[in-house]
Design goal:
Structural class: alpha+beta
Helix content: 25-40%
Number of helices: 9
Oligomer: single chain
CATH architecture of the largest domain: Orthogonal Bundle
CATH superfamily of the largest domain: Ribosomal protein S4/S9, N-terminal domain
Order of helices and strands: HHHHHHHEEEHEEH
Distance between the termini: 29 Å
Length: 209
């Protein structure tokens, strides 16, 4: 499957915002965005021109895609699924993205970034309701129990993330047991419970044209 493999820090610089794509590195002085906050490329240091309404909508959609690590076709599918359901389309879209297994593993604190969480899922280190699931896009639902496989609990990637779990914001819609590396989904999150800096109304405006 296609996947973005170039320097991730370029994505933050392109969006003009920290997307926290590299976990702990993003909160240190090694963060490329802190050192070079301008856009990448030959003309990156030139002042940014005023974006049109379409440009603002496009950038917001790209930012959301990059935060959650989703490809263009996948993202459109999420939008179409959200638009077909009753409720606020933008909020449902974020709920679908938040319900991805790789995002849940990241939110529970078992990985320092969504990229690392995706790697853990693909390599069969994650168990959902007693069964190994190796599909990062797997849609978890309220009541699901997510665990790190017993043999995988001592992995360096997981242990490093666990050392910082207490510093992260605990989300009310998730429950986590650090001792057993087990988490459960209590409910779907409301918009106020999703700490993602995205203006979803711009994305809805882009796709509804």
């Amino acid at each position: 499957m296609a996947r973005y493999r170039a320097a991730q820090c370029r994505l933050c610089r392109r969006e003009g915002d920290k997307l926290f794509l590299k976990g702990d590195r993003c909160v240190t002085d090694k963060c490329a965005f802190e050192r070079r906050g301008y856009a990448p490329g030959e003309h990156g240091q030139e002042s940014r021109r005023q974006l049109s309404d379409y440009g603002m909508q496009l950038r917001e959609k790209q930012k959301a895609r990059r935060i959650y690590g989703v490809l263009e076709a996948q993202f459109r599918n999420y939008y179409e699924k959200a638009a077909s359901q009753k409720g606020i389309t933008g909020e449902i879209l974020l709920q679908l993205l938040e319900s991805r297994l790789d995002n849940i593993v990241y939110r529970l604190g078992f990985a320092s970034s969504r990229n690392t969480a995706r790697q853990l899922v693909r390599h069969r280190h994650v168990v959902v309701n007693g069964h190994i699931v190796n599909v990062p896009s797997f849609q978890a639902k309220p009541g699901d129990v997510i665990q790190v496989k017993e043999k995988s609990k001592e992995l360096a990637l997981i242990q490093t993330a666990l050392k910082r779990i207490d510093r992260r914001t605990q989300l009310s819609w998730l429950q986590v047991d650090k001792a057993t590396l087990t988490g459960s989904i209590l409910s779907l999150p409301s918009r106020e419970e999703i700490p993602t800096p995205i203006q979803e109304r711009l994305i809805v405006g882009l796709y509804s044209k």
